[in-house]
């Protein structure tokens, strides 16, 4: 089985790791990612694998090495991309590993865990704050006013209760050249929440010049640091980052999971 997997990816050794992950067309150029959370000490075998990886790819940024539970492979996180290697780093497997029984993308789950940020590091004053019901749960959304998937998410959020939603205005100019102007108009409205909701209901924009102090540029910088390359991108209470307009059931599942994880982390501290 392992021979089959590594042969699929043997050609990857010919390419620098940085070339294995490309941002989608039109995405903002990403800035350096904030420092990762302190990693657990490496086991002796993981240290040996890391040493070989760095010998083969001396310019690589290796954030994580650990033995996986699959086929004797080791997880290696190059910057923000998860790859798998054999113990001698003779082959690299590029792709996702799925748990077929439980229908879980194990690679995605581990990548999200490693890429989590501290919720307290989010500058929430740069976001439009909307409280629904008790507001007990937390969700941050990087959203583009002209993004059709953001519009889909807004429809889904109508039926989500007891949550505080922080919307970061994140226009991707290359894809939606008028989104930044619309974002400024919405931010400059007396009632930002109403202006945002009205825009997605009927396309109405506030009647102002959009020349007030606004966070659009600062939010663009924040999104680049977090490597937000698509809208909408969701940040949950435990700091996990998920791109895409999740359907209602998946969104509720993620909210519940993230809240439980955040409480567990807080209790441990």
The 3D shape can be described as: elongated
CATH C-level name of the largest domain:
Alpha Beta
Total DSSP E strands: 11
Rg measurement, Å: 21 Å
Measured between the Cα atoms of the first and last residue, the distance is 42 Å
The domain count comes to 2
Rounded average pLDDT: 86
Helix content: 25-40%
Order of helices and strands: HHEEEEEEHEEHEHHHEEH
State the secondary-structure class: alpha+beta
Low-confidence stretches: 1-38
Going by CATH, what is the homologous superfamily of the largest domain? Answer: Glutaredoxin
Strands across the major sheet, in which order?
Answer: 7-9-8-10-11
Q: State the helix count.
A: 8
CATH topology of the largest domain: Glutaredoxin
Share of residues in strands: 15-25%
What can be said about the biggest beta sheet?
5 strands, mixed
Q: What does this entry look like structurally?
A:
- There is one protein chain.
- With 269 residues, the chain is an alpha+beta fold.
- It folds into two domains: 2-114, Roll (Nuclear Transport Factor 2, Chain: A); 119-268, Glutaredoxin.
- It has helices at residues 2-9, 44-56, 106-114, 148-157, 179-187, 192-202, 216-225, 248-268; strands spanning 62-67, 74-78, 81-85, 92-93, 98-99, 104-105, 128-132, 137-143, 163-169, 233-236, 241-243.
- The strands form three sheets. A five-stranded mixed beta sheet has the order 7-9-8-10-11. Strands 1-2-3-4 form a four-stranded antiparallel beta sheet, with helices on both faces.
- Strand 10 and strand 11 form a beta hairpin.
- The longest helix is centred in the C-terminal third of the chain and has 21 residues, at 248-268.
- The protein is elongated and about 65 Å long.
- 30% of the residues are buried.
């Amino acid at each position: 089985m392992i021979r089959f997997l590594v042969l699929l990816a043997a050609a990857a050794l010919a390419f620098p790791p940085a070339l294995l992950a490309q941002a989608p067309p039109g995405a903002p150029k990403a800035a350096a990612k904030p420092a990762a959370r302190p990693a657990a000490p490496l086991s002796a075998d993981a240290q040996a694998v890391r040493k070989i990886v760095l010998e083969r790819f001396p310019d690589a940024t290796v954030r994580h090495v650990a033995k996986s539970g699959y086929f004797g492979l080791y997880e290696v996180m190059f910057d923000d991309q998860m790859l798998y290697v054999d113990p001698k780093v003779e082959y690299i497997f590029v792709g996702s590993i799925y748990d077929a029984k439980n229908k879980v993308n194990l690679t995605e789950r581990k990548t999200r865990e490693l890429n989590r940020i501290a919720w307290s590091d989010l500058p929430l004053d740069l976001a439009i704050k909307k409280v629904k019901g008790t507001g007990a749960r937390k969700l941050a959304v990087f959203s583009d006013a002209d993004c059709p998937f953001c519009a889909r998410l807004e429809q889904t959020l109508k039926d989500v209760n007891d949550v505080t939603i922080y919307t970061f205005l994140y226009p991707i100019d290359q894809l939606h050249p008028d989104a930044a102007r619309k974002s400024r108009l919405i931010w400059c409205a007396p009632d930002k929440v109403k202006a945002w909701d009205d825009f997605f209901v009927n396309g109405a924009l506030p009647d102002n010049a959009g020349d007030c102090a606004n966070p659009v540029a600062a939010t663009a910088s924040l999104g680049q640091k977090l490597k937000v390359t698509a809208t909408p991108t969701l940040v949950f209470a435990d700091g996990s980052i998920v791109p895409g307009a999740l359907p209602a059931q998946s969104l509720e599942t993620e909210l519940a999971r993230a809240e439980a994880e955040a409480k567990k982390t807080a209790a441990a501290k």
